[in-house]
Design a protein that fits this description.
The protein is mainly alpha-helical and 148 residues long. The protein has three helices and five strands. The chain has a three-stranded antiparallel β-sheet. A hairpin with a 6-residue loop joins strand 4 and strand 5. The mean pLDDT is 80.
C-alpha cells in the first residue's frame, strides 16, 4: 500500500529564469509548494497563494510572541541608548559653560576649582553609566525570561 501524502507544504522560491507555469492557471510562477520530505511539489502563482480557500500558512504563536517581545526590548534598548547620549551631550554643554565661568572667575585658587570640578564630573559620569547599564541589564533579563 502506498504511503499517504501529508497535507503540509513548504513555500520555496525559484529564480525568474527557472519560472514554470502555475499548475492551476498556467501563469509564470516562481513559487513552489513542496512537501517536507521533498517527494512532491507544484508551482503556484502569487494570486493563488493569497487565496484563503486554496492554502493557509501555519503560524507558530509562541515564535510570533517571542519575536514581538524581542523587537519591543530592542526598541527599549535604543531609547535607553538615546537617553544616555543626550545626557552625555548635556553634560558636555554644562562642562563647557562651567569652563567659561571658570575663565571669568579667577578669584579662587586653581587647584581647588579643578579638583572639585573633576570629582563632580567623575561622579556624574559614573552615575549615568551605571543607570544605562542597569536599564540594559533589566531589558536583557526580560528577554531571557521571555524565552523560557
Amino acid at each position: 500500500m502506498a504511503a499517504q501524502l501529508q497535507n503540509v507544504w513548504h513555500l520555496r522560491r525559484v529564480a525568474e529564469a527557472s519560472a514554470k507555469p502555475c499548475d492551476i492557471c498556467f501563469k509564470p510562477a516562481t513559487s513552489v509548494l513542496i512537501t517536507p520530505d521533498q517527494k512532491d511539489h507544484f508551482y503556484i502563482c502569487p494570486g493563488h497563494l493569497k487565496d484563503k480557500g486554496f492554502c493557509t500558512p501555519m503560524v507558530d504563536e509562541a515564535e510570533v510572541a517571542a519575536k514581538k517581545k524581542k523587537a519591543e526590548l530592542d526598541r527599549e534598548i535604543e531609547v535607553i541608548k538615546k537617553e544616555y547620549e543626550e545626557k552625555v551631550k548635556k553634560r558636555k554643554k554644562s562642562k563647557d559653560s562651567k569652563q567659561k565661568d571658570k575663565d571669568k572667575d579667577k578669584d579662587k585658587p586653581k587647584d581647588e576649582k579643578a579638583e572639585s570640578s573633576k570629582k563632580s564630573d567623575e561622579a556624574e559620569d559614573e552615575k549615568a553609566e551605571k543607570e544605562k547599564n542597569d536599564k540594559v541589564r533589566l531589558a536583557d533579563l526580560d528577554l531571557i525570561e521571555s524565552s523560557f
